[in-house]
Each structure stands twice: as C-alpha cells, then as structure tokens.
Design a protein that fits this description.
single chain; about 190 residues; mainly alpha
C-alpha cells in the first residue's frame, strides 16, 4: 500500500514476456529468500544465519560470471570477499563460546543466500528494462505475496486478529512493511 501511495501509476509492460522476470523475482527475492532465512533461524543461531546469508554477493558474482558474459571474476574480488567475510565473522562471533554448527539451519541460510543471488540477477535484468523502480518493486512484491499465500497451507500458520491489539506488533509490522521492505527494496 505504501508503494502505491508513493507512485500510484500502474506498470504497463511493453512486452508481456517480461512478466516472467517479475514472477521469478517475487518467488526468489520475496517468498523463498525469507522462507529459507526465517526457517534457518529456527534451527541455528542468528549469528550463523547472518554470516552465511552475507555470502550472497559471492554467489551473485559467481552466477553473474556464469550467466552474464560481460561480468568476470578477478583476483581482487576474491581478496575483497575474504576480507569482508572475515570482518563479518569477527563481529558475529566475538564470543567463541557461541560458535556452533547446526547443519539444517546453516544449509537453509546458505540456500537463502543462493536464492538472493538469483533475485539479484533478476532485479538487475528488471532494472535494465527501464521501468520505474517503485512500480517494479510493487510488481515483485505482488508476486511474492501471491507465492507466500500459496505456501501458507504447508506451514503451521494461524492468523490471529487479536495480535493487532498489541502496539508492539503493529509497530513491528509497520517498520517491516515501510522500512525493511518498501524502502529497502526500492533503494
């Protein structure tokens, strides 16, 4: 709703075949990424998930190299990646007593990173189409929500309207909707 208020014009695609990019971006970047990341948090620590999901740029570079021929990997990329991931590990695991492996959660976090890499390539392709970014984000969110609704019956989801009586729940939903989703995805 916030994105509609920001830019109320409807996105009209020049080529109907472009819709497939939006569909798969919604599936990967909205539905599957958050499904894998949030499920990983139920099996492993937030530190593990934070470190493992932060390798998404590495996977993005690998996929770009494979599928976008103009993108190539250089020695500096690998050096920069090692430095960056080392910093993330040091920050996340300051206390070595908290370091533990949880194969199920850790694999799900890595899958989330891989899925985000797919989304990154799709969003790059979408940005090259020349449409307004707010309209594109809104279309991606639309498909993401459709896929989330389709997935609900397969999970232990129970809608409870009484939760909206709690100001903290309302604030969290507004923060996640405006800040963590709308603004972050648009930017």
């Amino acid at each position: 709703m916030f994105l509609i208020l920001m830019y109320p014009k409807i996105l009209k695609l020049e080529n109907k075949k472009e819709e497939i990019y939006f569909i798969f971006a919604g599936l990967s970047g909205v539905s599957l990424y958050y499904l894998f990341e949030n499920t990983a948090l139920t099996y492993t620590s937030a530190s593990n998930v934070g470190v493992l999901v932060s390798v998404a740029p590495f996977f993005t570079a690998i996929l770009s190299n494979l599928f976008i021929k103009s993108e190539s990997l250089h020695k500096n990329f690998f050096i920069g990646f090692i430095i960056a991931i080392s910093g993330i590990i040091f920050i996340s695991f300051k206390d070595t007593a908290n370091v533990s492996l949880s194969p199920m959660g850790d694999i799900l976090a890595l899958l989330a990173a891989m899925i985000w890499a797919v989304y990154s390539l799709l969003s790059k392709k979408i940005s090259e189409l020349g449409y307004n970014i707010i309209q594109c984000t809104r279309r991606i969110f639309f498909y993401g929500l459709i896929f989330m609704i389709i997935m609900l019956p397969f999970f232990d989801f129970k809608f409870d309207i009484s939760l909206f009586n709690n100001f903290t729940v309302i604030f969290n939903i507004l923060f996640l909707g405006f800040g963590a989703c709308s603004i972050c995805f648009v930017t």
